[in-house]
Write a structure and sequence with these properties.
By secondary structure, the chain is mainly β. Helices cover 3% and strands 32% of the residues. The chain has helices spanning 190-195, 197-201, 250-254, and strands spanning 12-15, 76-79, 100-101, 106-112, 119-125, 131-137, 153-154, 160-163, 168-172, 182-186, 204-206, 211-212, 218-224, 235-239, 245-249, 261-262, 269-270, 276-282, 293-299, 305-310, 331-332, 338-342, 355-359, 379-382, 395-401, 413-424, 431-440, 461-463, 468-472, 477-482, 487-493. Strands 11, 12, 13, 14 and 15 form a five-stranded antiparallel β-sheet that branches. β3 and β4 form a beta hairpin. The chain is globular. The two termini are 17 Å apart.
Length: 501
């Protein structure tokens, strides 16, 4: 039976909309070509609020600032992996970085160029797909199991930042222009890096998406794999809008020498007032032991620790798994509440669904967990998007809600959950966030009955203008989930769904 460790990725990026909505950055994927887009349709000019990075904003709310277009055609497509590496079972165990979209509708996407390493970023016209510019990166992947995500981010100034080798950032100030040059900035000092770039390139590796706050300060995790002239150890870096840099060691911030690093793929998240940055840290992966960790609240200017909490399995009361094969990142709600997804302590004890933990701004365990947290980042859903909702919460959260065949019943769903209300979990019996809406995947694994295809979502795109969410399934189809009707009124095929989306 297919396990969640074989879920979630997309090989070809198919831009169905020319608006500020993200592509899927998941693991796994089919090799089928993108369908022919059909007759040429005049491009639609779109200008609107940008999609800055993973989960759109510093809180990872994934709430769009512009309405998505109808899913009636694929406007253009382009590969994001020039040398995909499949397992013998046909799985593609990689998390692709999320594209970003400027206010002028330039789509900047990461492209994997080599079999085991090699990346570039491409800037394309969002309406036509025409290449505006491309930029090779010298970025090197850290040690990994599944290939971690590589992705650029936009600062409020409009400047694009992409990971480079040795912990440096590659910066392009005007991504909408075909003309321009790139520069670099290094969080531990440009001159220090320049003194021995080879030593840093071989030992320092950015291992999370880059998060920008509203002032243009940048935050990301990095791994140090050996000695280096600056005495760096794995931790969290900050590059100020003024170019200044600082960092904090993950083990020191957690006050736990067993902590190895910031969790791979876990993008830092900002509080609504921008004063706090939340980051997940974990132990190194080791055979036979739980890769556990903490959630930290750090001062966003000094990186001083404000609060820390051990991430626990709410059913077992023991350390939860904070997996480097997950893309779960903290999400911060409009009221400052923090959500973070983990795996259960004993893999499979909760049908390999994990838990969506929630905390108050100072990381006290503040209400009930959600009944799914594996490899997903909660998306914020304004309560007004769900007319049937009559509860007291001003916002809800959306997550994938798979119940994997072989451990669960194979009835893989999506869910909108109320973080302020509870119900009994049908697996563990413990209180979990109340299900406001759930919807079953529409495609059977085989035949006309039985388990349905998994949802392949690391972060959803929430469209408050149409009261819908864009979601992708391992059947290879992108769906519009209409919340008022709790149905899929629109869909468009991206691939044949061979194995994964």
């Amino acid at each position: 039976m297919k396990q969640p460790a074989l879920s979630c990725a997309i090989l070809a990026l198919a831009l169905v909309v020319a608006s500020a909505l993200p592509g899927c950055g998941g693991g796994g994927g089919g090799s089928s070509p993108v369908p022919d887009p059909g007759p040429v349709v005049p491009p639609i000019t779109v200008n609107g609020p940008a999609w800055w990075g993973f989960g759109r904003d510093g809180q990872h709310s994934a709430v769009a600032g512009i309405a998505s277009q109808d899913l009636n055609r694929i406007a253009w497509s382009t590969p994001v992996d020039l040398a995909p590496q499949y397992t013998s079972a046909g799985a593609l165990l990689i998390h692709y970085g999320s594209p970003v979209i400027t206010a002028a509708n330039t789509v900047v996407l990461p492209v994997k160029t080599g079999a085991t390493d090699g990346f570039r970023v491409e800037a394309r016209d969002g309406a036509t797909g025409t290449l505006r510019w491309s930029l090779a990166s010298d970025y090197r992947l850290p040690a990994h199991d599944w290939v971690p995500s590589y992705g650029p981010t936009l600062a409020p100034s409009g400047a694009l930042h992409a990971p480079g080798a040795g912990g440096k950032l590659i910066v392009r100030d005007n991504p909408d222009s075909a003309l321009g040059t790139a520069r670099t900035t290094v969080f531990f000092g440009d001159s220090v890096y320049a003194g021995n770039p080879a030593a840093f390139d071989s030992s320092v590796f950015i291992n999370t998406p880059i998060t920008a706050d509203a002032q243009g300060n940048l935050f990301f995790g990095f791994i140090v794999a050996g000695p280096n002239p600056a005495g760096l150890v794995s931790g969290l870096a900050r590059v100020g809008a003024d170019g200044s840099g600082r960092w904090v060691a993950a083990a020191a911030a957690a006050d736990d020498s067993a902590i190895a690093k910031v969790a791979t793929n876990a993008a830092p998240a900002m509080s609504p007032d921008q004063r706090t940055v939340y980051v997940a840290v974990n132990k190194a992966p080791a055979t036979g032991s739980v890769q556990s960790g903490y959630l930290l609240a750090l001062d966003s200017t000094t990186l001083a620790v404000q609060a820390r909490v051990a991430l626990l399995d709410p059913a077992a009361g023991t350390p939860a798994r904070v997996s480097d094969n997950s893309t779960a990142s903290p999400t911060v709600g409009p009221d400052g509440r923090v959500f973070f997804g983990v795996l259960e302590s004993v893999f499979g004890a909760h049908n390999a669904r994990g838990w969506m933990l929630q905390f108050d701004p100072l990381l006290a365990a503040s209400r009930t967990p959600g009944s799914f947290g594996w490899d997903t980042t909660a998306s914020i859903v304004p309560a007004a998007m769900v007319p049937s909702y009559g509860g007291a919460s001003g916002y809800l959260v959306a997550v994938k809600y798979n119940n994997y065949a072989g451990r669960g019943d194979g009835m893989n769903r999506l869910a909108v959950l109320d973080p302020s209300a509870a119900q009994a979990d049908n697996i563990s019996g413990r209180p979990v966030m109340r299900e406001v809406l759930t919807i079953l995947g529409p495609t059977f694994e085989s035949g006309n009955s039985g388990p349905v295809k998994e949802w392949c979502i690391n972060t959803m795109a929430v469209d408050p203008f149409t009261k819908s969410i864009l979601v992708n399934s391992e059947d290879g189809i992108l769906y519009r989930w209409d919340l008022p009707s709790n149905s899929f009124p629109q869909k468009i095929r991206l691939t044949s769904g061979l194995g994964q989306a």
